[in-house]
Fold this sequence. Notes:
Its cofactor is (R)-lipoate. This protein has 165 residues and is an alpha+beta fold.
Amino acid sequence: MSAISAFLFRRTLQFQPIRQLHLTKCLYQERYFTKKHEWVQIIDTNKKQNEIRIGISDYAQRALGDVVYCELPAIGTKFKCDDTFATLESVKAVSDCYMPIDGEVSTVNDKLKDEADLINKSSYENGWLIQAIIDDKNKKNIPSTLMNEKQYEKFLEANKEASDH
Length: 165
């Protein structure tokens, strides 16, 4: 590379801002979070019913440590908001997962029976816990009752020093 080409190349890089593109929002539905670190994602697998996928946040899986076992509910079980729907056992502790919204379990992530560490490896894609069917009213209320990703990040930052979250 000649001196002039190198100079122009460096000048171009110097003045061009680096842009970051987050494909997750383009490819996937937005996730909503609870203050107890569960996440909800509206999925469109069944057009006749409102279905959501539920898991724990990346923050929660890091705080929990290596997950070695998880106890998931039976399909068809109905839960109210804040009911315990799953239990995760890690090397550090045992933790309950709380239902973020009223619903009926339609699917459980069977992979977690043999590979509970999927929660640590991929808490948003492969480490989800359950899918549930919810009613129209609850679906419409999700954006107003739960935090979106930016709000959740602010919540984590504001509560960084708190020991109970």
